[in-house]
Design a protein that fits this description.
heterodimer; A: about 525 residues; 2 domains; about 35% helix; about 10% strand; B: alpha/beta; Aspartate Aminotransferase, domain 2; three-stranded antiparallel β-sheet; 12 helices; 12 strands; about 15% strand
Amino acid sequence: MSADIKLEQAKMTNSNDNPTASTRASEDGNRALHYEENLLWEKERSDTPGVDLPTPTGIALRTGSEPRGDIGLPQVSEPQALRHFVRMSTWNYSIDHGFFPLGSCTMKHNPRINEKVARIPGFAHLHPMQPESTTQGALALMYDLQHWLAELTNLPGVCLAPAAGAHGELAGMMTIRRAHELNGNKHKTVILIPDSAHGTNPATAITCGFTVRNIPTGGTGRVTVDAFKQALYAVSEDGAEVAGMMVTNPNTCGLFETDILEISELLHDAGGYFYCDGANFNALVGKIRPGDFGVDVMHINLHKTFSTPHGGGGPGSGPICVTEELAQYMPVPTVIKDGEKYKLEWEEDRPDTLGRLKGFQGQFGMHVRALSYMLSHGADGLKRVSEDAVLNANYILRSLESDFNAPYADQGPCMHEALLTDKHQKANGVQTLDIAKALIERGYHPMTVYFPMVLPGTMLIEPTETESKDSMDRFISVMKEIAEDSANLDNAEEHFHSFPHSSPRRRLDEVKAARNPQLRWK
Amino acid sequence: MRYLPQTQKSRDEMLEAVGAKSIDDLYVDVPAQAFIDGKADLPDHKGEMEVERIMHSYANQNHAASAGPFFLGAGAYFHHIPASVDYIIQRSEFLTAYTPYQPEIAQGTLQMIFEFQTFVAQITGMEIANASLYDGATSATEAALMAMRITKRRKIAIGNAIHPDYEAVLRAYMSNFDDIEVVDGDPADDTACVIIQSPDFYGQPHKYEALRKQCDDTGALLIVVVTEILSLGLLPAPVEADIVCGEAQSIGVALSYGGPHLGFFACKEKFVRQMPGRLCGITEDADGKRGFVLTLNTREQHIRRDKATSNICTNQGLCALAFTVHMSLLGEDGFKQLARINHEAACKTADALNAIDGVTLVSETFFNEFTITLSKPANDIVEALAAKGIIAGYAPKSSKGGQGDENKLIVCATEITQDSDIEALAEGLKEAL
């Protein structure tokens, strides 16, 4: 075969006129680095498992029953197992891939030193019920983490036990409930919550036995003193039934609550406590202390502000910080220092506590990672975290305010996240969901969509401090291109509805999944 | 400040672009009194080497389970974790991903959750399982809350010796409502559920036929709590239960001084719309290819707000991944074999200790954990042996019904336990008693 003929054949194979060649994939759907991977149960059962264990001696069982029969578990060798999960991992987007501007989630860089130190055997192989004489290092670490959190919030009581943000909310709200109960204020049962709040806030208040009263935020994106007073005095003239409020500050519209001092004073005068949702603490850390703007209780998401990895949905960790007055009521345990010794403080040491909300001492592995991050940044670095996070969000807001509706842009600077909506694009049939899927097609994880719910089609963008200007400039130009396409393309609606094309899966039918739920392999 | 990519030049350019003279112009809405004067009263930043040194200095003051003979269980178990597990969970694509809200670019996490749910359902003998909860204690509490939603009753019965942490968490959650009652004993006509742990806190496995009948007679739900999920590789599945929940830390998750661990939650399919936590289900994409999504979201707080089934938002994603990888390596044969080795190690340990003067084996049946009675207060013995580098077990603080547990010791052995460890414990006990 001559060289010319080979070249001709190669051209034909690559030609777009030949669809079978241009879309050629293996029988199981694999192409280049794109792999399909079936479920473990769909694989051929291996004779031997992926572990080599000692052979049991076969002594008589002392369990009181016959050994378990066939469970139906799959069985694969070690290389098959590894390949299975590595292939699946390639279908995930992660922070290490690129920009992850998920508002209210603080998807910042996760330093690997945190992972390394959490695996030191003195931490990883430590049992929660060992005698305290053998765990002094762990207790010292928790004590020091409590100190860092107390300093950064100016709220001196710290309980590290809660397992996640929503669990921290529960711990904080139960602390408030306990305080009212022991102070003869059981009639205080109402919690005020702005309509811009995270869904966990009202869900938590209900879980604690409170009822929820809404504060409308109206057109400014903020809780105004007037709206707050109307909610506070809606039923009684002194707000006697109000137990407290749950406010996220900065709020979910990306704004600092300008009137927070006056609002917290009114609340305190009515005998209520101010619970601050700490989801947005990254805007403040190292620079502004919530204890200095009226907060009584706050949870901190170590997996947001303090860089412990999100892990595809957990584990998180949600310590709470409270005022000196409320410290006696918060959950146990906390670590105290008794002379030279560290010890866990339990119910018998702190009788007014609401009790325990988590098995053992909390998510200690996350405590190690968070302290490692704090030590790395230090007081000087953490202040920079807040400043860069806020600067980055403002840069995105100002760069995109002429391309997208930016409902609160005229109110001044935002904090660490920028809020846009799809108002302009919707006129041409392109909605927030389409914009999100178009971002996926262009290699980005979308921002938070349809939250907060105070306006239709919201897009909440949180760049975090670990994004460079260059990275944001590229994102901004992609967003501008999306805005342009949605305005100029004749078939914009159809064009955008088709996204994404190149991801491991295209748009998934969520209605079908919910109609006839299949939640396990059968 | 190695985590901050902005240069001074880019900061200046961006400040100019947003029309601010200084960074503090962006904080105009914050009241002056809330600013830290200068910077926080904490040390300044440190390099990686120094941080590592400090963290080691904390760790060096701890006695790791791997540092000597170790016989402590009581709800958290020291097992070997294959190297592949820790490798997979440190892959960026799993470690630094978010909750799979954008399923097109989160199929790795979603398929893993679907496999996790299948593993948990099969192991527990239940029809369905969720994507995991914080830990065993909170999963038991969520089970009780779910039973109250289903039965519309407000009384919870605790049927046997459940883990004291689990009971404490349950009681704390329920204290939010004056009309909820938590009692010990059998189910009655007004009971929402009876909670029974197997093996119980002292190591005793339980059978459920009689309790199932009592539940059928009274309309209460049967909740079975399992703190050592590996036990289900040898014990029969609690198929009589309505809900099986507890702790799955034993498979793939490190002790880490108590967390993060891995709460699991499985139940009958008819209760699916009352379940707490995330659920992953099968669907198709626009091209008709099989894919996975989070489903039945209308139970959850971000949609239902104050009417949600639970305020829970996250699961224990990465711990669920560790479990799923470890289970895939174990397979049917490995899972059962590992369970049997654990049981044999416990039998051997129990016999060795029972032969000592001043030690009596209390448990007749057990899995990998059993209870002995000592001739002296167990807590003193535990402290004395700890001083010699032997972690002997757990000395319960108190027992139900007023009967003192002072001299009881709960001892656990696993595949890690060596003959030399058993000898060391036996020798230590002989000297201390």
